[in-house]
Amino acid sequence: MIKAVSTLPKPTPRATDPAVLAAEIVERLTYRSGKNAAAAKPHDWLAAVINVIRDRIIDRWIASTQETYDEGGKRVYYLSLEFLIGRLMRDAVSNLGLMDEMRQALASLGVQLDLIRELEPDAALGNGGLGRLAACFMESMATVDVPAYGYGIRYVNGMFRQEIHDGWQVELPETWLAHGNPWEFERRESSYEIGFGGTVEPTAADGSGDDARIWKPGERLIATAYDTPVVGWRAERVNTLRLWTATPIDPILLDRFNAGDHLGALAESNKADSLARVLYPADSNPAGQELRLRQEYFFSSASLQDIVRRHIQYFGDIRTLPEKAAIQLNDTHPAVSIAEMMRLLIDEHDLSFDEAWAVTQPTFGYTNHTLLPEALETWPVPLFERLLPRHMQLVYAINAKLLIQARREKNMDDRAIAAISLIDETGERRVRMANLAFAGSHSVNGVAALHTELMKQTVFADLHRMFPERINNKTNGVTPRRWLQQCNPELTGLLRETIGDTFLDDTEALSALDAFADDSAFQAKFKAVKLAKKAALSNLLRERMGLKIDPTALFDIQIKRIHEYKRQLLNIIEAVALYDQIRSHPEKDWQPRVKLFGGKAAPSYHNAKLIIKLANDVARVINHDPAVQGLLKIVFVPNYNVSLAEVMMPAADLSEQISTAGMEASGTGNMKFALNGALTIGTLDGANIEIKDHVGDQNIMIFGLTAEEVAAKRAGGYNPRETIEGSRELSQALSAIASGVFSPDDRDRYRALTDGIYDHDWFMVAADFEAYHTAQRAVDALWADEPAWYSKTVRNTARVGWFSSDRTIRQYASEIWGILP
Asked: Do you know which Pfam families this protein is assigned to (predicted)?
C-alpha cells in the first residue's frame, strides 16, 4: 500500500483586494492570451478572469483532496450520465466570496463583469432535471464538506442546440468546446483500457477452478480523465468532477490509409470519438441502442477502475472498499456498474463470487428517478451479450443468486419471481437494468415522498417485499447559491436587508421572511424586484427573438423537457380556450398574461416535437390577432438551458407544474420558481405535494386528479370522449386545433395528436382540463388583488428553504453513505 502524505507547507492564501486582482488579470491577459489591455477582446478578458479565479480555487482544491487522503476518510463517488453545470465563472467567484472585489477590479480596467460573463458557454453535459440535480448535488457536497468525485462523460456536443425553424425544432451540434475549456485539467495518468465484445475463457485449461474468467475483448479503447474543480459555498471544500473522453489505442491504421482506404483507416478513431460526442443518441434504431449501451459501460468501467485503483493505492485491501467508498448510481444509466464491479473484484482481484457480492452491495446506492417504463432501461440479451459477454455471465450469476433466495427464503410464487428477475422474458428477452441496480445496492431511494411510495407499490413492488428495508426517500433539493443568490442578486439583497444574512448559510432561515408577507412596504419592494427581473427577461427576448412583451403582465412560465406526461399540451389547449373567451367576451376584465414555454424534445419523440410546433403555431395566430388587444401572448423560447433558466425563473409570476399525477418523480424547477417568489399551479405530483405542505394550502394552486384517481380511471373504463363533449371550452379548443385553425398550411397536422386525447387520453389532459381551466381563472382573480398575490408569493420564498440540496445531501450522507458532513 502506498499512502501519499503531504509534507509541503500549505500555500499562503492569495490576496483578494481589487488592486491585486486587477494586476493579476492584466498579467494573465499578457502571458496566457498574448495581448495587452488595449488589444484585448471581451473573450480575452473572460479567459483572464477565469484564470485568476482558477488559481485561487486550485490552492483549495489540492488542500481538500490531500486532507481526505491524509485522514483516510470515506469518499462519495457520484456516477451520472448528465451533469448540467451551466456557466461556472459567476458560480466560482460568488462561492469564493469575491464578487464585489472582482467587479471593482474589472471596473478599474474599464471592463464590466456582467457583460463578459455572458460570453461563457453553457457546458453541454446534460439535458434536464436529472443533470441539473447532479450539478446541484456536486456543489452541495462541497458546501457541506462531503469529499466527493462526480463521474460522467465529457460530451463534445452534448444534447443539441435547439433552433426553431418555421415553428419546428431543429437539432444542431452544441459546440461548447470549440475554443477549449479553461476550467478543466487533462489527467493523462488517469487513463484506463475499456473493452467490448470478444470472448470469455476459464482461467484453468479444463474449465474448472475458481469463479474468475479471462475476458479477451475484441475491441479496446482508452478512457482519459478531465477534471473540473467544484467549489463549495465559502470555498471551504473543492471537490472534483471527473469526465471521461475516449481515444482509440491505434488512432490510424497506417497500412490501410496508405493502401487508399482512408475511411477504413480511421474507423477505430471514429468509433471511439462517437462515445463522447453526443448525449442520448437517438435509440429508435439498433445502432443508436448499441451506442447508448457502449456509452454507459464506457464511463461506468472507467469510473470503477479509477475508484478501485485509488482504493488499492491508499488502503491496500480491496475488501475494505465499502468502508472507504460510497458509490451512488444516478438513475439506471450507470447500472452496469454492478456487473463491472463484480468483474473487477472476481477477475482482477481474485475474490470469489460471494466475497465480491459482499463488497459490492454495501458499496453501491441507487437513486431511481422515474416510474416510466421506457426510462427504466432494458437491453436485448443478444446485444448485451455481444458487447459485454463477461458481464452477461455475471448478470446470470447474480440473477441465479437472487431468484434462489426469493424462492427458498421468501417463498415467492412464479409471478413474483418473474417480476424480480434481472431478465424480462415477457417478449424479447431483455436485461432489466433497474432490477440489477436494485439487487446490487444496499440502498434504493426515491426523490420525493409520493414517488418513493409509488416505487414500493408499482415497479419495485416484489423487490420491495423481498428487501423491505432497502427503499428510502430523499426528496430533491436545489442549491440556493445558484438559484437565489446568483441568479437573483436583487432579491438576495432585499432579503439580507430585511432578515439579515443567516439564510446565506442556512436556507431554512428564510422563514423569518414570513413576518413581512403582509407588510405593504415590503411587498412594494418585493414587487419592484420581480418587475426588474421581468424587464430583464423582456429585454433578452427582444434581443434574441425580436419580441416585445409587457413586463407588467402576468408571466406564466412552463420550462422543462418536452414530454406528454409533463403536459405542455394541456397548457396550450387551455391557452386556446382562453383566447376564445377573450375574443367572445371582450367586456370582461381580463388580466394581461404572457405564457412562456421552453424545453427540448428528444429527436426521435414525434409527439413532443409536434407539441413544440403547436405552441409556435398557436403563438403565431394569437400574437397577431388585434382582437386580443395584448391581453394574451404565447412565446416558445428556443434552446432552453441553465443560463436561460437563470433569467426566466426569477421573472416568473406563475410556475406551471402540471404533470399527470403519479408520473413526475420530483421536479426541481418547482423549487427554484417558488424560491424566487412565484406561485405554483400544479397537480399533486412529485415534490409539489411537499411544497404544498411547506408553503400551505392557501399559497399554492392545486388542481386535478390524484395519482390514485389517475390509476382508477385508467383501470375503470374512463371515456375521454364523453368528458370532452361535456366541456364546451375543451371541445371547442380541440376542434379548432384538429381542424387546422392554427395550421392552415396542413389542416390535418394535429389530427393524430387530438385523436389520442379522444381515444384514450393516457395523460389525462381531458380529465384534468376543467379543473385546470378553473384554477387559471382563480389565478386571474388573485393577480387582480395585488396585496393578496404578493402575500402568497412572499410566503413561497419564505417557506421553501427546506428544499435546499444541502439538506438533501446531509440526508444522503448520514442515512446512505455513512458519512458525517
From this structure: Phosphorylase
3-state secondary structure of 303: helix
pLDDT one-digit tens code per residue, 246-270: 998 876 565 665 677 556 655 677 7
Residue 721 lies in a domain: yes
On whether the CB atoms of residues 246 and 298 are closer than 8 A, the answer is yes
Mean pLDDT of 264-280: 80
pLDDT at 803 over 90: yes
Angle between helix 99-108 and helix 42-71 axes, rounded to 10 deg: 150
Residue 790 belongs to a domain with what CATH number?
3.40.50.2000
399 and 489 housed in the same domain: no
Residue 302, amino acid: A
| Number of domains within the chain | 2
Residues paired with residue 366 on neighbouring β-strands, in sequence order: 329, 444
Q: Are residues 243 and 288 in the same domain?
A: yes
Provide the residue type at 90 as one letter.
R
| Spatial separation of the C-alpha atoms in residues 470 and 441, rounded to whole Å | 8
| CA-based nearest residue to 466, from 417, 533, 522 | 417
Shared-domain flag, residues 440 and 501:
no
Q: Residue 247: what pLDDT?
A: 92
Q: How many helices (H) and strands (E) does the chain have?
A: 34, 22
Q: Report the SS3 class of residue 157.
A: coil
Cβ burial, residue 666 (10 Å; 0-12/13-18/19+): buried
Asked if the structure places residue 93 within a domain, the reply is no
H or E element that contains 727: none
| CA 118/CA 599 separation, integer angstroms | 20
Read off the DSSP letter of residue 158. B
Give the range of the structural domain holding residue 349, as residue numbers without chain letter. Answer: 73-88+123-475+810-817
- Active site residues per annotation: 369, 560-561, 566, 668, 672
Q: Using DSSP bridges, classify how beta strands 219-231 and 185-196 pair: parallel, antiparallel or unpaired.
A: antiparallel
528 and 426: one domain?
no
SS3 44: helix
Same domain, 790 and 742: yes
517 half-sphere exposure, CB direction, 13 A CA radius = 20
Write the CB contacts of 570 (distance below 8 Å, at least 6 apart in sequence): 658, 765, 768, 769, 772
Single-letter code of the amino acid located at 337: S
Half-sphere exposure of 317 (CA within 13 A, CB side): 6
Per-residue DSSP letter, 343: H
Asked whether 396 and 474 are in contact (CB, 8 A), the reply is: no
**Residue the block writes with cell 412583451:** 549
Q: Evaluate whether residue 25 is within a structural domain.
A: no
pLDDT value at position 634? 98
- The mean pLDDT of 65-83, rounded to a whole number, is 88
Whether residue 544 is found in the same domain as residue 404: no
Same domain, 442 and 518: no
- Strand ranges for 69-208 from DSSP E: 75-79, 148-153, 161-165, 168-172, 185-196, 199-202
Cβ-contact 42, 50 below 8 angstroms: no
Residue 599 lies in a domain: yes
Q: Tell me the CA distances in angstroms from 25 to 19, 22, 91, 179, one per residue in order.
A: 10, 5, 18, 20
Cα angle: 806, vertex 55, 175; to 5 degrees: 75
Cβ-based neighbours of 194, under 8 Å, separated by 6 or more = 220, 221, 222, 223, 246, 297, 298, 301, 302
